[in-house]
Amino acid sequence: MITIDSLAMKFLNASVLALCLAATILSCSKSGGDNPTPPYVPPTTPPVTPPVTPPANTPVVPPIVYSGYTLLWNDEFNSTSIDGANWNFETGTGVNGDFGTGQLDRATNRPENATIENGVLNSGGGCLAITTRKETYLDRNYTSARLTTQDKGSWGPGTRIEARVWARDVRYKGQGFAFWMMPAEKPTNQPYIMWPQGGEVDIMEYVGAIPKYNLGTVHYAWSWENNTYQSWNHGHKGGYYSYQETQVPAVNPAYGGWPVAATETNAGSGGFHIYRVDWYANRMEFAVDDQVYHINYFNDGEAFNNAPDGQDADGNVTIGGKRVMKSEYSHHFAEWSPFSHKFFLLLTAGVGGNDNMTYGGAIVNDAQFPCTTYIDWVRVYQRN
Fold first, then answer.
1. Tens digit of pLDDT for each residue in 25-35?
2. Domain residue ranges in the chain
3. How far is CA 190 from the centre of its chain?
4. Eight-class DSSP state of 40
5. Which string of b and e fits 206-229 if b means at least 16 CB within 10 Å?
6. 376, 384, 364, 382: which is closest to 58 by C-alpha?
């Protein structure tokens, strides 16, 4: 006979058993079995927020006032975009697919390759950033940018032309950046002026293969040749500038020493420098940070005060305690004197495709991209 007391006891026992079973299941589902989670202990101190690096303070610096000069034209790159009134984008790969210098890159007008950037360390306001990239784009594996003032600005004798540039990432063989000039004028009886009859001026020619030196050069022709191209008809005189010695080195450098450390101050990649040419009626003076290192005289015999001898002479002299290269005779023929005429400006980056045609050589496998050069400003002064 089942009594009420025995039924109550059975119900109580069943309830206890169910509660124990539920507690066991709940315990297993939270702990994951045999590895119980330790109890949560709140932190005794609040978490530390990582510091935020503020952008570099880059106050706008007004153009330099030089005694005996008046500012004629400038771009400080302080606007939000590249000024189309000053600059053209030269796109593509050149007439022969390599801009004539064996390059592998395709120049574009994309902001990925050329843009205005703010907050660049040690700049005055904004900077033009020109970047080469390793990427598949149309038919090429590298991209770049080429900006020119053709048909928008050109200058000749009687001017000082300069730019403040930091080739920050040009640190490997095959990488390069140039600030240079090409002819804006031609003979009236010719449809164009052929290179090198029209001349070329390389104010800054900096490559990662020779990281501790800049090259300042004039290119010209020996003979008019009816204003046609001849492979043998090319003269050039270039002087190296040593960032460490602040003068022409005793011996011209060869490829080597790359990549320099990002903190290397004795290289063009180590910081901003002012690259300049002072253009006179009879000569050009190339300078870096106010130090003249190459003087090219246009006429035969003027560099060394000797009688004209028909030779493109050059040699190092000491001026103000510094080695300076002098060269002469870049005006060879009567039909056209290239450096008596106006030239336009170019800012270009490139990736070298071989060691024979490309100044700075072929790109190496360990070269790092993207590779950016910053231009703080470009200025042209008229000599009073």
1. 334 333 333 44
2. 71-383
3. 35
4. P
5. bbbbbbbbbbbbbbbbbebeebee
6. 376
pLDDT in tens, 255-314: 999 999 999 999 999 999 999 999 999 999 999 999 999 999 999 999 999 999 999 999
Q: Which two tokens stand for residue 119?
A: 């907050």
Q: Is the pTM higher than 0.70?
A: yes
Burial of residue 128 (CB within 10 Å: 0-12, 13-18, 19+) is buried
d(CA 328, CA 8): 121
CB atoms within 10 A of CB 281: 10
Q: For the chain, how many residues are written?
A: 384
The CATH T-level fold of domain 71-383 is Jelly Rolls (2.60.120)
Q: What one-letter code names the amino acid at 158?
A: G
CA 352 to chain centre: 14
Phi, psi for 80 (deg, rounded to 5): -85, -15
CB within 8 Å of 36: residues ≥ 6 apart: none
